Amino acid sequence: MSIDIETARKVAHLARIAVPEAKLAALAGELSGILSFMEQLNEVDVTGIEPMTSVTPMRLKRRADLVTDGNIQASILKNAPDAREGFFAVPKVVE
Amino acid sequence: MSALNSLTIAAARDALRQREITALALTEACLAAIEGAGALNAFVHHTPDIALAQAKAADARLAAGNAPALCGIPLGIKDLFCTKGVASQAASNILRGFKPEYESTVTQNLWNAGAVMLGKLNMDEFAMGSSNETSCYGNVVNPWRRGNDTTPLTPGGSSGGSAAAVAADLCLGATGTDTGGSIRQPAAFTGIVGIKPTYGRVSRWGVVAFASSLDQAGPMTKTVRDAAIMLGTMASHDAKDSTSADLPVPDFEAALTGDIRGKRIGVPKEYRMEGMPAEIERLWAEGAAMLRDAGAEIVDISLPHTRYALPAYYVVAPAEASSNLARYDGVRYGHRAKLGAGDGITEMYENTRAEGFGPEVQRRIMIGTYVLSAGFYDAYYNRARKVRALIKRDFEQVFAAGIDAILTPATPSAAFGLGEMADASPVEMYLNDVFTVTVNLAGLPGIAVPTGYDSKGLPLGLQLIGRPWAEADLLNHAYVLERAAGFSGKPAKWW
């Protein structure tokens, strides 16, 4: 599978990474190289094989549905690039 | 006694308990060694105040006869572990300035056992790399050189700072993490021991996530015994990590009996790669002979899906990374790009991530995004997960046939020069993980042990792979290999 510039632009946008127009061709080439390496997987007969979902066969643990933590607003906001009045601040989202 | 910082964990522990040395003197020796080793660029955040306070507390416990497993032992911590109030940025600019408000379970276990934190160690950005050349702090330099040749060499990656720091005696041991070989490959490149435990043995809570179904933390140490001691403290069942195993942690050190008589060691034919250097081939054969001489039976085995491990890994790992790294959006922590006039939230995300992530991380996020996108999910991601199931089954069949451990080379070569792979494609760099990545895909424990040198005098290591949860047995096999190989080399100090 070879990736064209249009696909590279789409992938960069889906990944929310700004890629300058001038670099899209190089990116498309790199991604194509990696994907062609992955094409080897098509040689494997996977008929009847279930995709692996868990590394070790174990049931995920459950716990009581209780609050275990809280009242740490200052800690949560401590590393925020822009925190105001107890909230994370972001650019205007709704016009 | 030789310089305190060159002690093993076991020797230092015994000397501390005999009151022959103090934790303070030991810590000061390490801090001085770190101070003099700027050229290696291994330690990137220094915490001498914490270290000295912890050392004094350790001395008080030792004086009171109340010394836990690692009381007074100075360690380095990979920058991937969150340490409360201390910079933890996964060697990425996107986490510049981030100081966690919490402590990872692994490091908390170490501090509870009396260990001393010397500082944070350099690594590849988000643990994505095999040469420690993707770090926002710059390259780590391997303390080993090719004889008199001064070419700076890679310590391997991603735990390159941990490997260099242990090999250069800047600390007695270090934490590493291993997603595709990131403990074992740098251990082999620097002549030290590194073990990746069974998936679930060590809690991932508070460790910056790369690929959650592959990541495991483990110790990087000077000897197998030290790895056993340190793993015993790092491992625990942790309710904060839902994949953490609710199993008792055995006494790994007590398992080092040196007796492997009657054990069956598999040598997989698929690991004999085309174009494999003769010295790696020889090292491998010598290792098998050492285990045979110790009374083990060497058995030829087959792991038929081995060659598909790397392509499967480079689908699964980036897919999980693209999802895990979606959290770096410039809102809750870390870097946020400056907004231009009229920029909205999408531009904020896109510019923040373009500025904050380095090229290799960007590449893997985009590969992961692509293989998970509508229309390609089945063709790439689901197919890779099926191949992963087959790779795991290969190992299960071999173990069911009575194999106790598997012996392979740890790396396809000795350490290479920094920058030597600059013109290589990403795929060529990925080949460094060819012998280690299968172990992560199957969730098994694997250990790298230094057993010899290449023609230029650089260390080479072998890998032993164990059954799930059989780290104790695996460490004992490694202990036999270590004693038989008698590797005791240290890099000549040039830094």
Describe the structure.
The complex is a heterodimer of chains A (95) and B (495). With 95 residues, chain A is mainly alpha-helical. In chain A, 32% of the residues lie in helices and 4% in strands. Chain A has helices at 5-14, 24-38, 73-77; strands spanning 83-84, 87-88. A two-stranded antiparallel ribbon of chain A has the order 1-2. Chain A is flat, with a radius of gyration of 23 Å. In chain B, 36% of the residues lie in helices and 13% in strands. In chain B, helix 5 (160-167) packs parallel to helix 6, helix 7 (224-234) runs antiparallel to helix 15 (471-485) and helix 9 packs across helix 11 (359-372). An 11-stranded mixed β-sheet of chain B has the order 1-3-2-4-6-5-10-11-9-7-8, with helices on both faces. Chain B is α/β, with parallel strands linked by helices and 495 residues long. The mean pLDDT of chain B is 96. Chains A and B meet through helix 1 and helix 2 of A and helix 9, helix 10, helix 11, helix 12 and helix 13 of B.
Strand order of the largest sheet of chain B: 1-3-2-4-6-5-10-11-9-7-8
The multimeric state of the shown protein is heterodimer
**Helix segment tally of chain A:** 3
**What is the ordering of alpha helices and beta strands of chain B?**
HHEHEHEHEHEEHEHEHHHHEHHEEH
Let me know the largest β-sheet of chain B.
11 strands, mixed
The secondary-structure class of chain B comes to alpha/beta
How would you write the strand order of the largest sheet of chain A? 1-2
Radius of gyration computed on alpha carbons of chain A: 23 Å
How many DSSP helices of chain B? 15
Percentage of residues in helical conformation of chain A: 25-40%
- What number is the mean pLDDT of chain A? 92
Largest sheet of chain A: 2 strands, antiparallel
**Percent range of helical residues of chain B:** 25-40%
**Overall spatial form of chain A:** flat
Principal-axis shape of chain B equals: globular
Descriptive terms for the model:
heterodimer; A: 95 residues; mainly alpha; two-stranded antiparallel sheet; B: 495 residues; alpha/beta; 15 helices; globular
